[in-house]
C-alpha cells in the first residue's frame, strides 16, 4: 500500500515538475481555475516534501522550493480575495478556510526540505509565505480563529504547525490557547466544546469528517513537539475517541447524510487517510488496519508507512460496527445520535435516530428525525445539503438558496411537521438552544430501541418518538417499528413525511393521481418545493411498497383516524434545476389535538435482474394493531404465517420500572421502557 502511494505521488509530482511552476493571481471562487490550481499546488508541496524525505532526490526538494519561492513573490502583495462571499475572505482563496488548508499542507511539505535549502531561500520562504500566512490566519483573522467551529480548527492547525516549524512559541501558544492565550478559544478549547464525551462532533458526521484532519494532524504535531501535554490523553482521550467515532458515523463507508452533508463523501478521503493513520499510531488498535484496507490508501507520512507495514504483516482485526449511543453537546447531555445496528458489518442494517442539538449553522430543523440503510444503501433517506461542491456554475460551488428553503426545512426530513412550518419557525439560532431529549436507549439483543422527545420545537406541542429495531426468526432483515406521538391543547395540522429511495411497486391506498398537472403542496417552509402526485385515504392499516436494487420494502402505516396520504416529489419552484427529484409519502391529519402515528418498515424478498428471478415481493406483515393500555402503548404485528409480535412502549422510561398488561386474557410483564412478546398465532394452543 505504501509503495503504491509513493508511485501515485511520484507520478503527480513529476507531472507538476514537467508542467512548470504555475502560481496564478487569485481570481476565481471554488471550482474555478485559480482556486483549483492553488489546491493542486499545496497538494504537490505536501507530496513532494514527503517524497524528498523518503528518497532524498533533489528534484523533489527543488520543486517544493520553487513553488514556495513563487508564493513568496505573490503572497505579500495580495489583499482580500476578489470572489469573497459571505464568509471571511482569504488571500489565495475566496474564503480563509481554504487558506488554512493550504498552510496545513504546505508546512508538512516544507518541513522535510527546509534544512536542505540555502539560508537565503529558507529565510525568504519563512518570512514571505509561512509567517505572513500564519499571521493573517491568527491576528489578521480574529473573527475566524477565535470561533468554536471547523474553520477555526483548520486555522489553529495551520498557525500551530507553522509555529512549530519556525520555532515560534508565540504562534504555537496562540493556536493552542487563543490569541490572548487565555484558553477561552484555541485548539484546546475546541477539543472541549466541539466534541461530546463520546467523540461526536457538534456539526454532525459530514463536518466531523472534514474537521478530523486538522484535529489529528495538529494533535500528532503537539505530541511530537510538546510531549508533556499528553495531547492524546487530553479530556479522557477525546482525540482518539473522535477518530474512532468518525469511522462509526458511516454506513458502507459513507458518512451519514444528516445536516449539511453531501451524500458522496466516504472514508476514502484525504481527511480520513490522515486520521486513520494517526489513530492507529496513537492507539495501535488493529481494527484501524481493517479500515485502512477498506480505504485502499494511506498517506506518505511515518504514520502511514507504519500502518501499511502492519497491514501487510497481517495484523488487521475487524472493526466492530456495533450499536452506539453518541451523546450530543460538550457534556453529552444535549440529546444524542443513536446508531442501532443489526449486524457488526460495515454495510449491515443501520437505524439512525437523530435526537440531539441543532448542529450549529450547518444543522437542520429535524429533531426526532430517523434514517435507515442496509446493503442496498440508504432506504429511508435524508436530503443532506443543497450544494454542488466546487462546481463553479452552481453559484461558485457554495450552498444554494434551496439549502435554506428546502434542505434544512423540517418537511425535508422524516419527522413531524406542525401546521406546515419548520421547527422553531425555521430559526436555527433559536433551535440551537433547544436540543431533543434522549429518554431511553437499548443497544443490545434482538430488540433495540431509541426513545426521544422534544417540547420546544412547536409552541404548545409535545412530541415523543420511539424507534424499535426487531430481529424476527425467519426474516432476513429486521423490522423497524416507529411510534410517534404528538400532544397539544390546541388543534393542529400534523404532517409526517417519509422520504424513501426506490421505485414504487404498489400500494393498497387508492390514490387520486394528478396526471394533467402537478399542484404544489404549499408556499413556504419547504412545502413550496413539493409537487403533489397523488392523494388518497384508507381506513386502518395502509401499505406502500417500493423496490430498490435487489430488495423490496413495505411501509405499513397506522395513522390517526381521518388521515390522508400524499405522494410528493421534490423539485417544484426550482428555476435553476438545483434540486434532486426524490419521492416521499406524507401522512396528514387536520384539526387534531393529540395524534399517534404507528409505522413499520419491512424489508423483504429479493430481485435478481441477471437471473430474472423475484422472491417474496409481497409483504410478510399481514396486520398492524395499536392499543393504548394503562401507562403504555401496545403495538401488535401479525405476520402472514399467523405469528404475532407484541411490542409495549411504556410511558415511564425508567430502566428499573416493572410493567404489566393484559393481552387477550393473558398477563404480560416486563421491566424497563420496552417489552417484547413473541406470541403464537391467534387461536393456537399456548
TrEMBL record:
<dbReference type="Pfam" id="PF05426">
    <property type="entry name" value="Alginate_lyase"/>
</dbReference>
<dbReference type="InterPro" id="IPR012480">
    <property type="entry name" value="Hepar_II_III_C"/>
</dbReference>
<dbReference type="Pfam" id="PF22686">
    <property type="entry name" value="Alg17C_C"/>
</dbReference>
<dbReference type="InterPro" id="IPR008929">
    <property type="entry name" value="Chondroitin_lyas"/>
</dbReference>
<keyword id="KW-0574">Periplasm</keyword>
<feature type="domain" description="Exo-oligoalginate lyase C-terminal">
    <location>
        <begin position="640"/>
        <end position="672"/>
    </location>
</feature>
<dbReference type="InterPro" id="IPR008397">
    <property type="entry name" value="Alginate_lyase_dom"/>
</dbReference>
<keyword id="KW-0456">Lyase</keyword>
<feature type="domain" description="Alginate lyase">
    <location>
        <begin position="43"/>
        <end position="251"/>
    </location>
</feature>
<dbReference type="Pfam" id="PF07940">
    <property type="entry name" value="Hepar_II_III_C"/>
</dbReference>
<keyword id="KW-0732">Signal</keyword>
<protein>
    <submittedName>
        <fullName>Heparinase II/III family protein</fullName>
    </submittedName>
</protein>
<dbReference type="InterPro" id="IPR055076">
    <property type="entry name" value="Alg17C_C"/>
</dbReference>
<feature type="domain" description="Heparinase II/III-like C-terminal">
    <location>
        <begin position="329"/>
        <end position="590"/>
    </location>
</feature>
